[in-house]
Amino acid sequence: MPIEGEYEPSPAQWVRDQVAEYESSGGQRGNMLGNTEMPVIIVTMRGRVSGKVRKLPVMRVESGGQYAIVASKGGTPENPGWYHNLVANPAAVAIQDGPEPFDVEVREVRGDERVAWWERAVAAYPPYAEYQTKTSRVIPVFVATRV
Description:
Blueprint: H1 13-24, E1 40-46, E2 53-59, E3 62-63, E4 66-70, H2 81-88, E5 93-96, E6 101-108, H3 111-124, H4 127-133, E7 141-146
Antiparallel strand pairs: 1-2, 1-5, 3-4, 4-7, 5-6, 6-7
């Protein structure tokens, strides 16, 4: 079931543009990070405070039909704001990896499971390893499973 409600685009212009390009083309355009060959997906969630629909591109890290969502924020000391949206509303999440979005439920992974997903994430997007060296926090990793 699609996440319904008022959509509030990101304050970051590049995020708004990439989400719009991805969605309007059914994932045919706007599906790579900038000028790289590194694929992204669109994650839709509900804002924990506003209740509004939020969307953002994240690196595509997929294994066995599940997806990792890495809350790196470039290795800054704090988690990205959207991290708290996923924690607060783990069942109000959708992923678009291609033409149509689908509902997922997310959970933050820890221990050996996190290690395995972190390795997949770094393989898909090597800068994650550098981001981890820039911060004392353990960068959170969520696993999204289709419902």
